[in-house]
Write a structure and sequence with these properties.
389 residues; two-stranded antiparallel sheet; 14 helices
Length: 389
């Protein structure tokens, strides 16, 4: 391992680089903010000595990710292969700049673990999507948890954590999510196909993910299975634009796609405001009567609205910032799980045997039933380990 990691492990947090500018989190690999806290180094190399592709002025290495690989496939669609090539060429730690956005890639799992374990109470990073942040500034919107740092980040994260990442709380979502899952099964059965092949499985899983996430965050159904959701195209386009366009480019030229990004985000924020206003009217009477019961504990939006330490604007921003990554993660993790099971028929049969031994035909999965399916949980965990979404 290069001497960039030559730091004292007994300290609270060590940055592995002497950086001249912030580093950010980037897709597929762990890219760290290496300027979070005071550094005490022993023999670490300077940031300028870190290897990596040089790139062009302004563009950096952007063109490397636009190469045509044949059959309509761009190198940006083979990000994992690009990263592997970088590691082979420059080693396990390298830097790269795209549109002036400096990133550092760490490929060794032990180094990634070390970084995460030593981030401190308030890990710091620059905004992941500068163009999205500029949109927020132009629309006078507050930042959500994905764009905050320091005490403000911790304050919002602490509130959200009360209803997230807790298995007991998640159990309360079982019934509404079972309804969404039933709609997905009915939708798949209705899709015409040959030889058992579902031509649009990825699209259907996206709709299912959108419905599931919407049910949890906004406590409402979006109706994705009754019509083709425009959010699908919107989500894909937003991801492409916020990754490809730096914020400063808008000062010189307003690209059509950037304007469309603004239009799409306006629609999404208006939709979020509508859902929140509707829910506020619905529960206002209950709040006045102090009629929010313990059984409402799993209702995410109701919980946020009933609190006095988070504003209306903060609720909207945070729900929308949670919406898109949750949709992507849920749908792709499920797709990869199904793919890996299809590649391993023996494991697929083992999973089928486990599920049918616990659930009767047509019976919905309950939290108690899921506890009796360790192999199912293992399949999802292994998917997350081998095929990060």
């Amino acid at each position: 391992m290069a001497s960039w990691l030559a730091v004292q492990p007994s300290r609270t947090l060590r940055s592995v680089y002497k950086v001249k500018q912030p580093l950010n989190l980037w897709k597929q690999t762990v890219l760290c903010s290496a300027h979070t806290q005071t550094v005490q180094e022993t023999s670490g190399k300077s940031f300028d000595e870190m290897p990596g592709p040089k790139g062009l002025p302004l563009l950096g290495t952007f063109l490397d990710y636009t190469k045509d690989l044949g059959e309509g496939v761009r190198s940006s669609q083979r990000m994992h292969e690009m990263q592997q090539q970088r590691v082979q060429q420059y080693g396990p730690i390298f830097r790269e700049k795209i549109f002036g956005h400096q990133t550092v890639t760490i490929s060794n799992p032990d180094d990634v673990e070390y970084l995460f374990r030593n981030e401190g109470k308030w890990p710091r990073r620059d905004p992941p999507f500068p163009l999205w942040e500029k949109y927020k500034e132009d629309r006078d919107q507050v930042r959500g948890v994905g764009f905050l740092n320091g005490e403000e980040w911790y304050r919002i994260r602490r509130i959200l954590n009360m209803k997230m990442l807790r298995p007991k709380v998640a159990e309360g979502y079982a019934e509404p999510l079972n309804d969404v899952a039933s709609d997905l099964v009915a939708q798949i059965k209705a899709i015409p196909g040959t030889d058992g092949i579902i031509p649009s499985l990825e699209d259907e899983l996206f709709k299912w993910s959108l419905e599931s996430v919407g049910t949890v965050l906004f406590e409402t159904r979006f109706g994705s299975f009754s019509k083709s959701p425009s959010l699908e195209a919107t989500n894909s386009q937003i991801i492409q634009i916020v990754f490809l366009f730096p914020a400063w480019i808008d000062k010189f030229y307003r690209f059509k796609s950037v304007q469309e990004f603004y239009d799409h985000m306006d629609i999404i924020h208006n939709f979020g405001d509508m859902c929140i206003n509707k829910k506020m009217r619905e529960i206002q009477g209950r709040l006045d009567k102090e009629d929010i019961q313990d059984e409402d504990a799993a209702e995410f939006l109701t919980f946020l609205i009933s609190r006095e330490d988070i504003s209306f604007k903060e609720i909207t921003s945070n729900l929308i910032e949670l919406l898109f990554p949750a949709i992507e993660t849920t749908s792709f993790t499920t797709l990869w799980t199904l793919y890996l099971l299809a590649r391993n028929p023996d494991l697929q049969k083992q999973l089928h045997d486990e599920v049918t031994s616990v659930l009767k035909p047509g019976e919905h999965a309950t939290p108690a039933a899921l506890q009796k399916m360790p192999f199912l949980r293992g399949c999802v965990k292994e998917t997350l380990r081998t095929s990060c979404s």
